[in-house]
Amino acid sequence: MVRILLADDHTLVRQGLRRILEEHADWSVVAETGDGREAVKQAVALRPDVAVLDIGMPQLNGIEAARQISKRAPTVRIVMVSMHADEAHVVRAVEAGATGYLLKDSADTDLVDAVTAAIRGKSFFSPAVAAVLLDECRRSLVKRGAADRYTALSDREREIFQLIAEGHSNKAVAELLGIGLTTVETHRSHILEKLDLHSVAEVVLYAVRRGIIS
Prior knowledge:
Helices cover 55% and strands 14% of the residues.
């Protein structure tokens, strides 16, 4: 059973999202709330598999809630739901720990895909969001001359790069690959240096652009 936390300050929207989620017999919404602060409390207490968070919530917005959940309950995968498709909101959400970002007007078609991706340890962006990010990422990479640097990575570095882009921590990467944590940290440093990337958000955008993750 996949356990899901649902947080949105609009009751009707929350009910609609819950209906979509619980159409899956093996998915269960174990808690729901209308504010970000309560979402953090429930995520820490219940440790659901996935937290679906609205960005615009009272007391604590969804991005800050995601940031706190990522720190206090790092096994919880986070999917953001928003009315905003601009780069600033998406990048802030990814930096806060979100691995999925979908728009409210496409939730009826994208929510299942986003949660499924989260369960599998992958990322998901609504098509409209992905298009905005790809355009911006392409301009940024071309400007920095970084478009073809991926080919300079070793096979091991490419493995680690994908795992980082999928949201895995250094410790998780070490366990998955059967190598030491220090080795992962060294590879990660070299990867960021070679690609001229400076944050997990930039890693995710770069990986989406190259088709490494979807």
